[in-house]
Amino acid sequence: MSDWKNAFERNRVIPPHSQTARQAPGSSQGLQLHLKQIDGLHIRQSELPQSLQYQLRVTLFDSGHQHFFGRTWKSRSHSLSGTTGQSSQVLFNEVVYFHTSLCLNTVVAVVELVCIRVDGSQDAVGSGFGLLQLFTGRADTRISQGEGRLSLFNGTPRALLHPTLKDPLQLNAVLSVMEGSQLLYSIQPHPALTPIMHLLPPNILVSGHDRIPGVVFSTDTGTDALRKPRLLKSFSCVLEGLRVALFPSVEVFESDLLQLLNRDCQNTNRGAEGRSVVVQERRLLVGVHNGWGWVEEPHVLVLEREATGSRAARSHGASAGGGFRQTSTDNLSDGLSLRGSVELKMMRDVVFSIVFQLQYVFSCPLVGDGQMTSTAVHRAAFMQCVRWCAWSLFSDPEGPGENMCLNLQGGALPNPWGVMVYSASTQQTNSGKCVIKFKFSSSVEGAPCSTTLKGSHRETSPPKKLLSATQDECILEPTASTPQSSRGPALSLSQLVATSRYPTMSHTVGSPWQQQLPSQLSPSPMASAHQLSHVERPVASSIAHLELSVQEREADRSEEEDEMQELTFTPVHAPVITLGTHSAGSSRSTSRRSLAQLFSTGFPQILDHQNQVAEVLDPSEPVNFDLQREEADHLQVNTLILQFLAFTRVPQTGVNSDWPSSVHFTFQLYRFQPVTTERLKLLEPERNSKLKSNPHYPCVLSLINKDGTLNSGFPGLQLQYRVDPQFLKPGERGWFLRYLAIHSLQIDVWDSESLMLIGSAAVELKHMLRQGRAAVQVSHELEVITTEYLQDANFAINVYTTVKGILHLRLGNVGGSVSSSQSSLALPPSLSHVVQPGDASRGFAGGSVPALTVLQLNASNARRARRLPEIDSELARLLQSTMREVGGAALHQQDEVKEVRQRKIDRMAAVRQHEQQKATPPFEDHANMTRHRTERVQHSRDLRVIEAYRERCKAQEITNMLSQAITTKHTLYATLGTAEFFEFVLKNPFNVPQTVTIECDDPELSVIVKSEEWRYFKELTKTLTPLEEEMFHLKESTLTPQVYLRPKESVHIPFKYQTFVCGCIFPLQDTKSLKISRSPQMAQKHLSNTIQAKSIKVLFRGEDRKPLAICQVDVEPTPHVVDQTFRFYHPELTFLKKAIRLSAAWDDIADGSATLHVRCSDPNVICHTTSLTPEEPQDVYLKVPGSPSPQIRKFFITIFTEPWLASPAQIWQVYVHYLQRMDLSCVCGTLSWHSLVLRGTQAIRRVKCYTSPPLELQVDPVEVFALPAQGIQDIHVGLRALRPGSRFFYLNVVDVDTRQLVASWLLCITCRQPVISKAFEINVPVDGGKGSNKKISFTNPYSSSRVFNLCTDRPDLLRFKEEQFQIGGGEPYTIGLRFAPSQNPGIEEILIFINDKQDKNEDTYCVRVQYR
Predict the structure, then answer these.
(1) DSSP sequence for 746-792
(2) Is-contact 49 80, C-beta < 8 A?
(3) CA–CA separation, 1261 vs 1248, rounded Å?
(4) Any idea what the Cα angle at residue 172 is, between residues 166 and 173, rounded to 5°?
(5) For 427, left (φ over 0), alpha (ψ -120 to 50), or beta?
(6) 3-state percent breakdown (helix, strand, coil) of the chain, nearest 5
(7) What pLDDT shows up at residue 831?
(8) Fewer beta carbons within 10 angstroms: which end of the chain, N or C?
(9) Which residues have C-beta within 8 Å of that of residue 162, sequence separation ≥ 6?
(10) Angle in degrees, CA 185, 186, 190, rounded to 5
(11) How far apart are CA 129 and CA 100, in angstroms?
């Protein structure tokens, strides 16, 4: 038996529980457990201490699943070292090392003390055991570091597997403790194990004298080799010419195997009739194993079946290399071969071996009852190991040979993969076995190895990469890495044919990731280049996914045989949205001449309360923020002013120079109502003919009236927001000042004609802090930015950040004094986190109600007396007398003044009726007597009904009154994602102990049962109250928390309220969905981004199910601030999958060991993140369900960086616009027409079609047309794309009267490159030059006269003298070209399209322009 086989069979371990393995919090950590001594060991008087020796045995145990795993470690035998009276002491002084990723508080170490007799019998008798807590379960300090003493229990560790033992950590209730016997130990992290973790499998306990293959073993008995372990030197070896020969042949071998599989499928009704199971792939797994575990993940290689005619070439190549040892197999088998070679890393240890596994991948159709369908059949793939072998390089004393031939084995034998191996039915002989052949060579740092490895050794070049470990979905990057075989486990090429089904579009917003509140607020680079993107993503049906290598697992994890092994996979959604990026050099400044002309138009000035001009601030200077100075300001009212002054156009490709002609803005400031402004006209500036023309003049904005005329008032648009103490809630002033200090306001700019998004801008609000001044103002020039994604013909994705324009904005803050009727709301008291039952207002406690008591009661406890029919509508329906009418009238009379007036009128009518009855003699009206008698009978019946009603409701009303006496009210000002913590003081009023059950019907309010979480919130809120470990008990059926109270005892019950649900809306995309803002106006006080207000009752029930106390929590909504805003455009009724990558500023906020947690406000949206190493970027993944067009889905994402999710680090707002999708294909420069169907609405409308970009996408009809009600209208779209690749175009149908979006299409364009017939090259001067005029000749290839049209893909750089010309058959024509000068030197390639009369491409010329 080889050394490797001995080590493999000796070191087989029990894997951990599968559920526990999935709960591993992170990477593997090394630990050092020092077992020092046992004190207080009692020895029987009948036993001699000299004949006894003791041994410690340590095993890992999962207390959550009652599962032992790993391997039992045994110490050396030790004798008693000292005896004091009847107790003795045993000195062990042994160190145990291991590493594990299961850093959970349920994973413990079971330490057993074993007594061994030395009289020759060597019997081992258990003397006791204990549970050593290894981990705390806390994220900050997971390992229970330090020294400790472990008490031992009588009995055996097998008691831990008893089914009645629910909590193994509470053994003191079941087993007896060994009095006075304690184990002295210490535990601490051992980072020195990290370099050898690939050689030592996890969860295996070893000591310093254990021999680990690959680790330098110390021959000195007193030296601990694992204290500072050293690795043996490694060398590289290459396996070339790998070939597998199966007996008797590949065809016969596979035929027998398939026959058995098909028979099995037919017996189990899993396959179709006939030969349903087929061979999909043949794989060879090659890896290095040290007898303990895999040194690295095995390589996964795909084998190819050799053709018959290739054997001659193979034989010739083998003879040139030295030839194989021939067997009879070569004459019978064609074999399986591998193209290329495999490189492995080995160490000079006799246990190291190379292990091979031949694996087949089969596929079977998923068709029930063996019926094949006419469409494509889905197939299920499964794998089966058919042969394997292990080869030790050092088994031969002479060293390995150059050409090796190994026998492959099968059957039920233990193997490193732990899988079942196929055993062939054909009887194999020594002359007919399955073998694997290869050529072996090795080298050490490029030089031949020593005499330990004999044979031919040469320096080898890096072998060719056969198959790399990859993912289910991957994208081939343009630059491929050096082809080498990478680590597995890997997927074969057949599993990589996966493409995305739907396109994804993004509108990305990035702002500075800020959470700390610095004293000095420096200008952020994001102020001028706020990265927001209105995305045009390429068609995803032709895009592959990014190819990423599978990360090497940090620890080998044993898996159950019936579980598939999960690959380390990171989903990729290309392109990934990067948060917080910005384009370099994006700052722009308007010339002084343009600014002078702009501000001479007469914008309204910002004045303080004394009509003085507000102080002007420089936006580039930092702001010194002092919160105390802001709160001490006597001007407690802040009037925030936003002035939209002008918009500067930036020339764009594909649009006209006068685009846009009118704009409107959407934004949301703090918690005010989201604003959609009125349409603003861009007024062309007056040009001076004597001065040089500048196309970048700012266009003043002017309001457009409803009739289409311009407003005659002040130019621009001014909005005002008043923030006073009446608007702010208690404690909200500090939040508002923080909002101004560290947040930015995002402004979306829309084209008012087409209702398409132009871009977005962001402005920092920190300059609106007055800092004791009466008023301040600051002017900004904000770039309106969008990001576009273009996929070229080579499937490479290019990202373009485009500036669509410059928005001129002025911000101001005017302070004001508080009126006498307004009172400043102070912050909540410092002890607001502790709720005392005596602090809150209660209801009436019972007893008499004198007049003085009524006056002293709170207004909420004082009630006006009401009739019973007014209280209960059911009772009012049962009454038959006039009381019902009175009660019914009172039910509908809500106003108190009207109710009193109606009562007086009824009383006067009754008095008059009574007087008339006195004046009328009884004998004159017999009918009146009958009517009065009937009314008395009905009245008596009603009184009996009322009496029965009172008796029925008396118990309930008394119970409600008594419950008010024990009810304590507490108000929470909650916001989205933020956990509100408070403690309720619960007292047992009885003289007997009580087990109190805490009941709450709202899942958002919960009891904190974990002491670690309780401690975290107490430190966070600085609550100085006692904390108890293991305070609560959870009921088995309902998991309701219970707490034990002694007589007259008071305890603090910790509560946490946290909600992630916020109203998800689906508004239509139009400018009338929100209230239009006029200038000037005072913004309304509206809570748009807040949670719902509600009242929650928490009942504390005793053992008799009667409430001891009631805590009523009133949740008041408060606003949450949006840090980032994303806007995605996606086809309707399809899932949106998107990845958002956090910026580099993440490292400044979150610790490297922090885990990212995300929550979504929409329960239908799937949002998650992956745990990565600190060096890797953090991605947030979204999966949003589809909706019909043109709806918009809005939701919020909260991001947390701490483990208990106390407060979100960021809150993102996401909009998903759903559009109708249409796929179009064209040739670059050629006009092609397509048809769309537009369906009418409920009423007739006057609509107009708009496209983006308008120069590449035409529409017919162009003008306004009538859309009939419930009718159908054909829209013709003319597509002439100017750039090859895949992009998104947009088509909107807008109601011109109501400015509503009627329909919207997402056009997925795939444009192909035309065939270039001629190429030219010219030189053009840069900046300051006058351009260049050139001519090229064109000859009509037809015999008849034709009309030709000219167009180019760069109309900004090239213009034609004539865009249309007509020439006779065979005649030449000179095309006049005008090249515009460029601002930057470089080379541009311009295409000239020569089309026919129908705009079909005839010829394409390419002009290479070099700007110098």
Answers:
(1) EEEEEETTTTEEEEEEEEE-GGG--TT-SEEEEEEEEEEEEEEEEE-
(2) yes
(3) 8
(4) 60
(5) beta
(6) 15, 40, 45
(7) 45
(8) N
(9) none
(10) 140
(11) 22
> The tokens of 232 are what?
């043996």
Q: Strands, DSSP E only, in 1296-1371? A: 1300-1312, 1318-1324, 1332-1339, 1346-1352, 1358-1360, 1364-1367
Percent of the chain with pLDDT over 70: 72
Other CB atoms within 10 Å distance of the CB of residue 1000: 18
Place of tokens 């002694």: 1046
Alpha-carbon span 107 to 142, nearest angstrom = 12
Do the strands 1386-1395 and 1346-1352 form a parallel or antiparallel pair, or are they unpaired?
A: antiparallel
**Residue 307 DSSP SS3:** coil
Residue 1241 structure tokens: 């609405």
**Residue 1166 in 3-state DSSP?**
strand
Read off the tokens for 664.
């409107």
Beta bridge partners of 239: 342, 440
| pLDDT score, position 1072 | 38
Amino acid type, 127: S
For the chain, give the mean pLDDT: 76
Rounded CA gap, 497 and 472, in Å?
9
Longest dimension (CA), the chain: 144
Single-letter amino acid, residue 742: I
Phi, psi (5° rounding) for residue 851?
Answer: -65, -40
Residues 6+ apart with CB under 8 A from 838: none
> Token pair of 84, please?
């004091």
Q: Are strands 615-616 and 675-677 parallel, antiparallel or unpaired?
A: unpaired
Question: How big is the chain, counted in residues?
Answer: 1412
Phi-psi region of 604 (alpha: psi -120 to 50; beta: other; left: phi over 0): beta
Whole-angstrom distance, CA of residue 368 vs CA of residue 378:
12
- Pairing relation of β-strands 680-683 and 775-791? unpaired
Non-local (6+) Cβ contacts of 1253 within 8 A are 652, 653, 654, 655, 1289
Helix H or strand E encompassing 1107: strand 1107-1117
Dist. CA 638–CA 811, nearest whole Å: 13
Q: What does the alpha-carbon distance between residue 1133 and residue 1189 come to, in Å, rounded to a whole number?
A: 8
Q: What angle do CA 1373, 1379, 1382 make, to 5 degrees?
A: 165
Q: What is the pLDDT of residue 749?
A: 93
Q: How far is CA 37 from CA 55, 95, 182, 863, in A?
A: 11, 12, 8, 75
Phi/psi for 946 (5° steps) reads -65, -40
Q: How many CB atoms lie within 10 A of CB 691?
A: 8
Q: Which pLDDT does position 706 carry in this prediction?
A: 85
Radius of gyration of the chain (CA): 42
User: CA geometry: angle at 212 spanning 208 and 214, to 5°?
Assistant: 125
Sign of the Cα torsion 1327, 1333, 1334, 1339 reads: positive
Rounded Cα–Cα distance for residues 386 and 423 (Å): 7
**Whole-Å CA distances, 920 to 913, 927, 933, 934, 935:** 11, 12, 17, 19, 19
Q: Extract the residue ranges of the chain whose pLDDT is less than 50.
A: 271-272, 274, 309-333, 368-376, 445-519, 522-561, 568-574, 580-587, 689-693, 793-794, 796, 823-831, 839-860, 882-894, 1065-1088, 1148, 1152
DSSP 856: H
Question: What is the Cα–Cα distance from 1207 to 1223, expressed in whole angstroms?
Answer: 44
Q: How many CB atoms lie within 10 A of CB 1264?
A: 13
Instruction: Give the pLDDT of residue 169.
Output: 63
Give dist(CA 432, CA 12) in Å, integer. 32
- Alpha-carbon distance 1157 to 1058, whole Å? 15
DSSP state of 15: P
Instruction: Give me the pLDDT at residue 222, please.
Output: 67
- Cα separation, 191 vs 214, whole angstroms: 18
Structure tokens at 1046: 């002694």
